Amino acid sequence: MNAGGFSVSLSLLIDPLSVLMTLIITGIGFFIHVYSVGYMSHDEGFARYFSYLNLFVFSMLMLVLGANYILMFVGWEGVGFCSYLLIGFWFGDNANNDAAKKAFVMNRIGDVGFLTGVFLIFITFGSIEYAQVFSSAAAMPAGLAVITTITLLLFIGATGKSAQIPLFTWLPDAMAGPTPVSALIHAATMVTAGIYMIVRSNILFTLAPITMEVITYVGVATALLGAFVAITQNDIKKVLAYSTVSQLGYMFVAVGVGAYSTGMFHLITHAFFKALLFLGAGSVIHAMSGEQDIRKMGGLKKDLPVTYLTFLAGVLAIVGLPPFSGFFSKDEILAKVFEHSTVLAVVMVITFMMTAFYIFRMFFLVFFGVFRGSEKQKSHLHESPAVMTVPLIVLAVLAVAGGFINIPETLFGHHALANFLEPVLRPSLAIIFSEEPSHATEYMLMAIAIAGTLVMFAVAYSRYLTNAHVPAASEKEQSFLYRLSSRKGYIDEFYDMIIRKPLDWISSVLNDVFDKNIFDRIVNSVGELVIAGSGAARLLQTGKLGFYLFIMVAGITAILFLNFMF
Amino acid sequence: MIPQAMPIQLVIPEIVLAGAGCLCLLLGAMKSQAARRSIPYIALLALVVDILLTVFVFKNQTGAGAGLVFGSVTAFARTSALVLGVLLVLANWSQAKPDEEGEYVAMMLFSLAGLLLVAPAENLVLLFSAIELVSIPTYVLVVLSRRNLKALEAGTKYFYLGALSAAILAYGMSFLYGVGGSIDLSTGAESIRAALHGERGPYALSLALLGIGLTLGGLFFKIAAAPLHFYIADVYEGAANGVAGLLGFVPKFAGLLAIFKILSLTGVWYGTTDATFVLIWIAAALSMTLGNILAFRQDNLKRMLAYSGVAHSGYMLVAVLAGPMTGDSGSVSNGLAAVLYYAVIYGIANLACFVILGVLKFRGLPCESLREVGGLLRREPALALLLAVAMLTLMGVPPLPGFWGKLGLFGSALAVAQSGGERSTWLVVLVVVALLNTAIAAAYYLRVVAALLLYEQDETAEADPLLEAQSLGAYICGVLLLIFAVFPSVLMNSSLAATNSVMNAATPQIAQRPAASVVVASQGELNPAKPQLSQR
């Protein structure tokens, strides 16, 4: 494509990073498609659903396979658009449309940053092809202001797409879409686009230490906030949504401290176990005839044995108990963060513990204890058909075994994934020199993480199983912290107050004062002028032949007059 | 000068049309029902045969003789006129009284044959005769088309005013002959240009100015440009819908082709004649503005379409000023191609509007005023959508072909303005006026579309499931519009290709315009490329 002197090639890039992403997208995408056949079988928008879903897969592949930033942006916008379509898939309910709009607008805010960053890349490097940008960047010194600006702008884009502070509030609302969509788009693939983009541009970010610090702290804060909010959510999908926000925070922490391959590792394991958890939740919702409130569930393990077992695999993976996949990726992050800052490592451990708590809380409330739903729901309980359970089983196997692709040396592995990605990361690795933490440190960190998880397991067990506690419905009985968590930290209200209300005020002033009184008047008077002119001109159309002849002669005379005048 | 003998095979399509017209006249006079019923079929047959001949046999035919010069523009004009002719015959199906069918169809064929002759005519007498061959049958058609006093009145008015315009045209042409010294356009061009430049003294100058002014005035009547548009609303309203559709294409296309021929005599495209430039500039601005203002408050759809036709003539005059010679050969920079393209698109869209109104009338549905077509979508969904598409085409909504057409018209003027010259500011101003007018026009077209699609009307007339010839015509119009919307380049490229020879002839002049002394001996049929201004 050419526009003036600017040209964009439609070329694709196949390298370890894009191959990895492609495998995730097509692999998990395939199983989610299979699952959807069962999940959406009763929906009248069956064909529409699959056309959107395939459009999404196309866009996502475009995003990860493009060989320049413009193609990435095409995919970036494409996935955002498909996400919009799928969140608002059941557009009959206006709440869904609001959620879709919110997701779209939040993403657009991020896109402004991303696109500006791409423009700046073009201005700085004279090209938007990865190959040229990265090779010129590698020769630059670290800490240049322009690189810092570029990376910060790109990161703004990433916060929109990957639901980080401050643009994360759309993701929980995005759960309005069908559950397989949440699994594919809002857990496994689209929301990781920000991570992919940073890892793809790793050399730029490596050269911008300030940006890296920003990413680290935003990641830690998002991880903590997401986990904190997830603790009190009662909607099964909301719990998982905030969990996703939190887990994406982990990934950003990893890339923020320069551990790109660790970020990608957690991206992969998270894709496995979070897709599994979402699909499991979908199976539960399916069995509960659409009910999503975990307070109305309970004791489902009898009726949904396959779902229960696969969900258990996902739970163990996300809380990070060995040897499940989450254990490896999470501990690698912890080790890298510990190297960077002890304080952040402590915060991360606290986050891990919160994660364990909310996951076990949900798990116990859904599958154990007594059934708390209606009689009608009870009579309807059933295990999902094979078309849904087979993908669950496959993903469960992946969630269990996925961690083996990158076993650290501490545990007698060879960092297979890190070695695989090494060609992509080579320029950055040359700059970031990090020594491996001692094996003793790593063992200690693992022990702390596992111990924290087990403690939280015990707390959740005693609270929700032994004491059979069910979260209260009314806010009065709740503590301040509980309310802060269940009201999502009042972030939506905060945005409403500082952004929406002032904007509303400005636009109503502009509307009342300028638009109605000035511009409308101008436009309307033009219209009135034309109408008046029309009325006047019609008077000339008398319909009388003699008059027409006269006018014609007058017209000819005028023509001749004009002709002689000039 | 004795005209060369004309190779007869060059005019076979015209002969076929005229012959078919005569046959129709004869059949119409017969008593046999079958003979009369066959009349429109014969017309269709003749037109289809002509289309095949033009497309396959005479495609690249060139040649000259007896004042006719054939080339790519004639081929384009022929093809489009014949295709529109098929649509016109369908649109006027069973419009006439049975015993007048022969005359009615014959008049249409004669008028079309006139149009086919205007394109190649390179000689004042032939040009005048061809234009009158276009016009005179239309007077008859207006009267024949309906059985009421209104049609008679409209026809009479049209005839009187048309006769006056013919007189003016002939008068103007006689001056041109006097100044140029030849009835042959290419022979007389140099002398006329010199006279307009004042190089032959004040006397020759005033004669030339008289000649150009009167000729253009007469032709403005044909294309219904202001200030000679007064007849149009009464005539359109009085005539049957099919005939009104014909009036929007056949005389207009003929008039525009003739205007190009006359303007090529003046050197207006080379910046040599200010008077003609100002004249056309004012006519364009006035036609657009007056046409739109008059259409703005019309409730009667036929009158509204009539006035909007005045505005469209104004739009086309913008590109006439841009002319066939502009800098680069992009699709928006050739004024002649843009006019050819737009005239055809306008013809189809305008015809579609009238045919649909005709079909409604034929089915006994009210269709005169805006209110009467309100809520048509519920009663006649297909026709309502077609009418909406046609209206939006006239309005110029992308991607409908009207948009591409307007892009070409105004883009060509801007391209000329961009290439510099003292008049570029004026061209830009004219384009601005045109764009403002397009905005005004949007109001009344959209009002119709809104009425069709949104308003509710309780009474439900029973739909006639029969596909009459008239609605077939309407559907073909709609299909053509949609085809040109999706593939705008099909027609645009052929109009560009048609004007290539004229363009090529004109292009060398641009670079050397200041010198203006290069003699290009070209046999291009419109011959604007001959500013053989000798530096005396």
- Quote the beta fraction of chain B: under 5%
Q: Can you give the mean pLDDT of chain B?
A: 82
* Poorly predicted tracts of residues of chain B: 506-536
Give the class of chain A from helix and strand content and strand pairing.
mainly alpha
Strand/helix succession of chain B = HHHEEHHHHHHHHHHHHHHHHHH
Using a beta-carbon cutoff below 8 angstroms, give the protein chain pair with the largest interface and the number of residues from each chain.
Answer: A-B, 28 and 40 residues
- The neighbouring-strand order within the major sheet of chain A is 1-2
Structure in a nutshell:
Chain A is 74% helix and 1% strand. Chain A has 566 residues and is mainly alpha-helical.
What features would you describe in this structure?
The complex is a heterodimer of chains A (566) and B (536). By secondary structure, chain A is mostly helical. Chain A has helices at 16-39, 46-65, 69-87, 94-125, 130-138, 145-161, 170-173, 179-188, 193-200, 202-206, 209-230, 236-256, 260-287, 305-319, 325-340, 342-367, 375-380, 386-401, 416-431, 439-466, 480-486, 491-540, 545-565, and strands at 2-3, 6-7. Chain A has a two-stranded antiparallel ribbon. In chain A, helix 1 (16-39) runs antiparallel to helix 18 (386-401), helix 11 runs antiparallel to helix 12 (236-256) and helix 14 packs parallel to helix 18. Chain B is mainly alpha-helical and 536 residues long. Chain B has one domain (8-535). Chain B has helices at 12-28, 33-37, 39-57, 72-91, 101-118, 124-145, 149-180, 185-196, 201-223, 232-238, 241-247, 250-266, 274-296, 301-322, 335-362, 376-379, 381-395, 401-418, 424-453, 469-486, 488-511, and strands at 63-65, 68-70. In chain B, strands 1-2 form a two-stranded antiparallel sheet. In chain B, a hairpin with a 2-residue loop joins strand 1 (63-65) and strand 2 (68-70). The longest helix of chain B is centred in the first third of the chain and has 32 residues, at 149-180. In chain B, 62% of the residues are buried. Residues 506-536 of chain B have low confidence and may be disordered. Classes of the chains: A mainly alpha (566), B mainly alpha (536).
